[in-house]
Write a structure and sequence with these properties.
By secondary structure, the protein is an alpha+beta fold. The chain contains four helices and 15 strands. The chain has helices at residues 18-30, 76-89, 91-96, 214-218, and strands at 44-45, 59-60, 100-105, 108-115, 118-125, 131-135, 138-142, 146-150, 158-159, 228-233, 237-245, 249-254, 257-263, 271-279, 282-287. The strands form five sheets. A five-stranded antiparallel beta sheet has the order 3-4-5-8-9. A four-stranded antiparallel beta sheet has the order 10-15-12-13, with no helix packed on it. Strands 1-2 form a two-stranded antiparallel sheet.
Length: 288
């Protein structure tokens, strides 16, 4: 497994060091594993309303070797490739027999696959400190939380704790775009935009004397629902707008200007805010 968490808005993006992942994969084969399934190896994107829950972003990536845009993520890609190259060198022994496991010290294992002239070995240090061991008459330095692969039971071809791949950080290049109003151009490469007014359009407005449950009201066709209220005052006043909502996020506008915002989180799907506001003489309109 590469990751088991969704990516939530505002939370830390899940990350698993490739050294730890390589250790888990090599140790799986060291202990007799036969089939490795990565979840996931190539990230993806949840489009539309398919993210699956509140506060979950559209990214479905989990720090994969190939990210959701199809870009190779280094050094994870190359290091895992080297892990599997090393395991491939042990293929005949792994397919022919099971491992014989011995202990070279506390939390230090030697797994030997041997059948006639075909042999391979893995040395694993599952302790938190480095160790030096003797195996088949040779001395080996084993870093903490480490598996080494020896296709001939002598030479180490892979050290899961040592990355030989070059690190690379992907970046996007931004370009200035001219504002274009209207539909896409003839080539299909243009951009269009619309200025959306604050508040409720007349075609979809209706009045109630109580608050409504959002999903039932929007029929799950939209994440957005406007509430509108107005008040007439004989004099300007400063007060506090108190809002408690089971929505994921809210924005409050007073007389067409943003007064404040609030968000919940994936653990507590609710918003509770107190926003200081200034109301003017006459009619005041509040949108949330």
């Amino acid at each position: 497994m590469l990751g088991t968490e969704f990516v939530s808005f505002g939370d830390v993006v899940p990350h698993r060091p490739v050294e730890d992942l390589a250790f888990a994969v090599a140790r799986f084969y060291q202990r007799g594993g036969t089939f490795q399934n990565y979840y996931m190896f190539h990230g993806g994107t949840n489009f539309g309303r398919t993210t699956g829950g509140p506060f979950i972003s559209t990214s479905y990536d989990f720090d994969t070797p190939i990210d959701e845009y199809g870009i190779i993520r280094q050094p994870k890609w190359d290091h895992l490739k080297n892990v599997h190259k090393a395991i491939k060198l042990c293929e005949k022994a792994l397919l022919a027999t099971g491992p014989t496991i011995t202990y070279l010290g506390p939390n230090i294992e030697a797994a030997v696959y041997n059948i006639g002239a075909v042999s391979a070995a893995f040395l694993a240090n599952i302790a938190k400190t480095d160790a030096k061991v003797s195996f088949n008459g040779n001395s080996y330095h084993l870093p903490a939380w480490y598996v080494s692969t020896l296709p001939d039971c002598k030479s180490v071809v892979l050290n899961t704790a040592k990355i030989n791949s070059a690190s690379m950080i992907s970046s996007f290049t931004t370009e200035s775009l001219k504002e274009e109003v209207g539909s896409l151009d003839d080539s299909g490469s243009g951009w269009s935009w619309i200025s959306e007014p604050i508040g409720i359009s007349k075609a979809h407005s209706f009045s109630k004397f109580w608050l409504l449950e959002q999903i039932n009201t929007t029929a799950d066709r939209s994440d957005y629902l406007w509430y509108s209220s107005s008040i007439d005052l004989d004099a300007a006043t400063e007060t506090v707008l108190h809002i408690e909502s089971l929505g994921h996020a809210l924005h409050a506008f007073v007389n067409g200007k943003l007064a404040g915002s609030g968000t919940g989180n994936h653990e507590k799907v609710s918003v509770k805010v107190d926003i200081p506001i200034t109301l003017v003489y006459g009619k005041n309109t509040i949108f949330t």
